[in-house]
Design brief:
Blueprint: H1 10-19, E1 32-33, E2 49-55, E3 68-74, E4 85-87, E5 107-111, E6 120-125, E7 137-143, E8 149-155, E9 168-171, E10 180-186, E11 189-193, E12 206-210, E13 216-225, E14 234-241, E15 248-254, E16 272-273, E17 279-282, E18 291-296, E19 299-303, E20 305-306, E21 309-310, E22 316-320, E23 327-331, E24 340-345, E25 356-360, E26 362-363, E27 366-367, E28 373-375, E29 396-399, E30 408-413, H2 416-419, E31 422-429, E32 432-442, E33 452-457
Parallel strand pairs: 1-32
Antiparallel strand pairs: 2-3, 2-33, 3-4, 5-6, 6-7, 7-8, 9-10, 10-11, 11-12, 13-14, 14-15, 15-16, 17-18, 18-19, 19-22, 20-21, 23-24, 24-25, 25-28, 26-27, 29-30, 30-31, 31-32
Bound molecules: calcium ion (4 copies).
Residues 112-114, 116, 118, 120, 142-143 line the site of one calcium ion.
InterPro entries: FG-GAP (IPR013517), Int_alpha_beta-p (IPR013519), Integrin_alpha_N (IPR028994)
Signal peptide: 1-23
Pfam families: FG-GAP (PF01839)
Amino acid sequence: MRARHLRWSAVVIGLLITGCDTAQPGRHEDCVPVSTPGTARPPNAEATGLLALGVPKGQVGSYKGAGYVVLVPDYGKGVDPANRRRIDQTSPGVPGEPASRGGFGEAVATGDFDHDGHTDLAVGTTGVGRGPIHPGSVTIVFGARGGSYGQAVTLAVSKDCWSFGGILSVGDFNNDSFDDLAAECNAGTVQVIYGAAHLRLRSPERADLDSGPKEPAGITGLATGDVTGDGYDDLVAETGVDDPADAGYEINVIAGSARGLTPKSGKDLSPRVENLTDLGVGDVDRDGHADVVVKNGSEVTVYPGTSRGLDTGGAYVGFRNRGLINSLAVGDVNGDGHADVALGAAQGVGGVTAGSVTVLYGGASGISGTGAQVIAEGKDGAPGVAGDRDGLGRTVALADLDGDSRAELAASAPAEGNGRGAVMVLRGTAAGVGTRGGVMMCGAPHTSLGGVLDGRPYP
Ligand SMILES: [Ca+2]
Ligand SMILES: [Ca+2]
Ligand SMILES: [Ca+2]
Ligand SMILES: [Ca+2]
């Protein structure tokens, strides 16, 4: 899921002065460059998880901004960037040709859409940089044995979509074991593409759904989880509302069923939030209903899930950050069955913009700041060197990549290294995010690695 659009001690400020890239231009942080294809042979094993990094500003051949996606596997011991793959429109089987400012990789999502046991990659490209004649497309690249990719299909845009693929979210909305893909279509419409065994051969079933508000001003976020607790994944859509008297963003649950996602009906349970937000879905209080967690400015608000949708009356502010929150992800970091929440605060406070990620842990009464963990580059053994304007936490993701039922944290600093961009991955442990033994990856100059990321365990 993607939404459009600190605490710093004297010790950290000291690091800023002595250790950052800008202070020592010749110095490079210890990171694994991932903009080129990996050179290592794939091991004779299947990955346990996959981290997808969309790099829409990436250069392909002589085409600037053609865009590519870096796929980083995990074989059960932490992400393995040496075995990365790079997918672009010159990759075998991928339809289309690279073009300047094509922006391939603007949105990425992963899932097993053909249910063959290999995780597939969905790539959304709205083509906004190329003018109105490119209304967007979604490409599904199929995974195969040993982490290879060789076949893909591009789903043409429907006539009523003009921002197709700008935001993607994956779930099994009809619970048939084939992952399904929800894609932004236009200001108030989501298109759902149902997974099927024949996806490579013929067009999948697609359906357009209203995202909720009567006067939508643009979908800003999509996330998936079983809010109603009936075994079918539900889609949670966040949509701007075009209402001068009451501007804001509406959160709607579109319920899954045996027939797939069904348009909203009955009682209005849609909360309205004031600020452009980011949302995640997970069962923070472990009552069998996934909860919707949204950031609203510097606050984190939890809307408990119920069999009828969201309990707006039971909503609570689980945490107030000292500065603006930029990104949010939900997943179970410590494996206790309660979903946890990662918050990226790239701008920080007081003009110090190295950025940080705060992890809030779920419990019987939901999310609170008790026991919160603050992650920053170089802090408590985490990789990297905190530099002013790095902006760690511009995006965050939580996903169990190594297969131990604890979510790993991926956090990006797209501005780091003068726009080279960096992504830090730290493993989930029973005691929370493990700051030691983390991996730091970095991109090519001016490609803002980490601006787009998504992670998923293998099926
Ligand atoms: Ca597959
Ligand atoms: Ca399905
Ligand atoms: Ca937890
Ligand atoms: Ca894990």
